[in-house]
Amino acid sequence: MTVVGAGGLLLIAFLVLGVTVADTTPTVDRIAAESLGGGWQHTAGDIAFVGSAVLGPVLPVLLGLGLLIGAWTRRHDARLRGLLLRAAVLLAVCRTVSLAKPLFERARPREYPDFSFPSGHVVSVASVAFTVVVLCAWLAVRRLRAVVWWSVAAVAAAALCRMVLDVHWLTDVLGATLGVVGLGLLTATGLGLLPVRSRSVGSRS
């Protein structure tokens, strides 16, 4: 299967999942909510609140600024500057998955502002993770495996925090991940970031 095909399938899965859960709560969501969401007013909730503050919308803002500053400081290196600017566009496009919430209008597990599907916090972390993995593949391929594992762990931690706080269903965080990876694959391909050609920007890996 091609990268574009995989991206398209994941994006379709995101949309289908969103439509499916918009007006119903699957059993898997109820089980997860009963297992994780009951302690949001206690210590587990305090920890999850801190985790959500760190693993949330602030991350893409910081990475986006970092990419733009990096592109400016390396403006005399056309290839690296172009890579960083394309990565900034990739990050921004992935982050737009959160804008799909009004399409589904899904209610939260408990009373809380805004719609539920997909999780904006998980979209934020997954967008950063996807962009960092792509950049790592270009610039530091030897560290790619470790970066992938850390990225997966960060997305999982963000998802867990949102479910412990009882502000998202399991399918909300799953949908966020599907949407970001699907849109990310399509966008990265369109921007020429996939397939990776790491040696073109001076990688020694």
UniProtKB/TrEMBL annotation:
Keywords: Membrane, Transmembrane, Transmembrane helix. Gene3D superfamilies: Phosphatidic acid phosphatase type 2/haloperoxidase (1.20.144.10). The chain crosses the membrane at residues 46-71, 83-100, 120-140, 147-165, 177-196. InterPro entries: PAP2/HPO (IPR000326), PAP2/HPO_sf (IPR036938). The keyword Membrane applies. It comes from the Bacteria. Residues 84-188 form the Phosphatidic acid phosphatase type 2/haloperoxidase domain. The keyword Repressor does not apply. Pfam families: PAP2. Signal peptide: none annotated. This is Phosphatidic acid phosphatase type 2/haloperoxidase domain-containing protein.
